[in-house]
Every structure is written in structure tokens, then in C-alpha cells.
Amino acid sequence: MRSLPAGTEAVVFDCDGLLVDTETCWTVAETAIFAAHGRPFGPAQKALVIGRTLEAAGEAMADHFGRPGAGAELAAELLRRVRVELGRGAAALPGAVELVRACRARVPIAVASNSPRELLDTALRSAGLLDCFTHSFAADEVRFPKPAPDLYRTACEALGVAPARSVAFEDSATGIASARAAGLHVAVVPSLPGTDLDHDWLGSSLAAPELLAWAAGLGGERPPTRPVPGPSGTGR
């Protein structure tokens, strides 16, 4: 069984669907685009776009709609619609604020998001999390966004901690692939329930008591605590 290491020296969080309930905003926008093309939008369709950059989501939709070459147009439409939805506000997900603050009190933390800077800052500000991070990195600030390792490598470099000594918190297969490629341990709270995702820790919420207990044991001021087991045997 794998678990989160007690000796973690840095924590890097995804944003959308992990810290902030922005996937609701994205789903409204995606549903409208699919409907405009006479297509339904359910879990299978969500799996095509979740965790991707705007550009990659646009290309995935273009392929799904049988519209080769329309990726940029669809990405622009998605950005416009998400911008409107985010403008109405997005709340922090359960446990997010408490876990971020608990980790920040013990070790360096950062955000690594596949959203562009504009949407990342809007989401963090709306959820009251923007001031919690002195380091955040967006998809349009690296050469290759997730699933490439660049965002997580950049975050670890900025924090001055080796990826092998860091933990990524993620919600999608795209983000997990990025964190793994960069060499981080991975804690997962899936945005799509029932999804089989690679993980060192898997739970249904950032509010899981064992996560706060783990965060309280980080850093060098206290003896290390035991690693966090997967809840109900879900870890591996």
C-alpha cells in the first residue's frame, strides 16, 4: 500500500475541481457547446475535456463533433462561456481552505493549474484563496501544460524542493499524469466519482480528517507522523 510521506517538504495543489468548485462553471459552458452541436453532455463527454487546457479541450470537442480544424474556435467559445460563469462566483470546495492553511503553516505551497492565468486568479480570488499562495503557475506560463510535467517541475523549482519530496493534490487523470511525470507523490480527490485514477492517497474530500492530521505533522518543528493511509483501504 502506498501513502503520503510524512517527510513531505512541499505541497502543490491543482485548482479547478480540487480547491475551487469551478467544474460546475466549466460543465455549464461545455454543456451549452455540446448542445449547440446537437450532442448530449454526460460523464463520458466530461471525461473527454476534464483537466485539459482550453486548447486541448477545444481540439477534443472538435474531434468529437467531427469538425477538424475547429479546435481554436471552440476553445475561444469555451473561454468566453467559462469567463461568464466564473464571474458569478465559485466557492472553495469542502476542506480546501483548512488544508491549504494547514499545509502553508508547515511547508512551502503552490498552485499548478491547467487554466490560463486569467481564470486561475479569478477562481482563487472568488474562493478566498488567492492570498494563501505566493507561488502559482498557470497553463499559459509554461511551454507544455499538463499532462506534461512542466507545471509541477516549475512549481517545485520555485519552492526549492525536489519533486520526490513533494506531494501534488489532483482531481483528474490529466493532472495526475503531469505530477507523476514530474516525480511527485499524488493525493487524489476525483471530480468524476467512480473514476479509476492512479494515486498514493485517494479520498472523497479534502476535508478528510487524516489529511489535516498529516498536514499538521509536516515540517521540521515536530517529529514526523505516520504516513496517511488510504481511507477504507483505498490507498495503494
Structural description of this entry:
- The protein is an alpha/beta fold and 236 residues long.
- The protein has 2 domains: 156 residues, Rossmann fold (3-Layer(aba) Sandwich); 64 residues.
- A 6-stranded parallel sheet has the order 3-2-1-4-5-6, with helices on both faces.
- Helix 8 links the parallel strand 4 and strand 5.
- Helix 1 packs across helix 4, helix 3 packs across helix 4 and helix 5 packs parallel to helix 9.
- The longest helix is centred in the N-terminal third of the chain and has 16 residues.
- The chain is globular and about 50 Å long.
- The C terminus is likely disordered.
SSE map:
Blueprint (H helix, E strand, L loop, with lengths): L9 E4 L9 H14 L6 H7 L4 H12 L5 H16 L9 H9 L4 E4 L4 H10 L9 E2 L12 H10 L6 E5 L2 H10 L2 E4 L12 E2 L6 H8 L20
Parallel strand pairs: 1-2, 1-4, 2-3, 4-5, 5-6
Helix pairs in contact: 1-4, 3-4, 5-9
